[in-house]
Design a protein that fits this description.
The chain is α/β, with parallel strands linked by helices. It is built from 5 helices and 6 strands; from the N terminus they run E-E-E-H-H-E-H-E-H-H-E.
Length: 153
């Protein structure tokens, strides 16, 4: 990650096979813009952010932006649901979970509008804290999704 790089967010529509609710689903994507304007995908800079120990800050920034987008949409009577990737840090970061609980209790985190995606390998390494984290998220109306599941033999 370059010091002059800026993060950008975009959303990618998700198509539901069956959706009884009148809401749109989007996956939040994060990109890093290089000084030359080139956009790096998450796979190009997230591993470095994890090694540098700054992934929690990036994840919280993305969560904050997602909540802001959801709230702005609700003010325009547009109902949407965002899917946001989160690193293993959230699984045992009580400070971030407390921040999310505060957002929920203050009415800024609306139930059933946000899904956090976690890598299966990360959850497997943090099973005890993942259980606590998922329970807390569920109580706030935040759903969870595991990615990286391989069903091939």
């Amino acid at each position: 990650m370059t010091p002059s790089g800026e993060t950008a967010r975009s959303v990618q529509p998700m198509v539901a096979l069956k959706n009884s609710k009148d809401e749109d689903h989007y996956q939040a994507l994060i990109r890093l813009q290089e000084p030359d304007g080139r956009l790096l995908s998450a796979k190009d800079f997230i591993p470095m952010a994890e090694r540098m120990g700054i992934i929690s800050h990036i994840d919280q920034w993305v969560a904050r932006k997602a909540i802001s987008i959801i709230n702005a949409s609700l003010q325009q009577d547009i109902h949407l649901h965002l899917f946001v990737s989160q690193a293993a840090d959230l699984l045992d970061n009580m400070e971030r979970l407390t921040w999310l609980r505060h957002k929920h209790s203050s009415g800024k985190l609306h139930e059933n509008t946000l899904t956090f995606e976690f890598r299966l390998a990360d959850v497997a390494q943090h099973l005890n804290s993942a259980k606590i984290c998922f329970d807390m998220l569920h109580k706030m109306g935040v759903t969870t999704l595991l990615t990286g599941v391989n069903f091939s033999t």
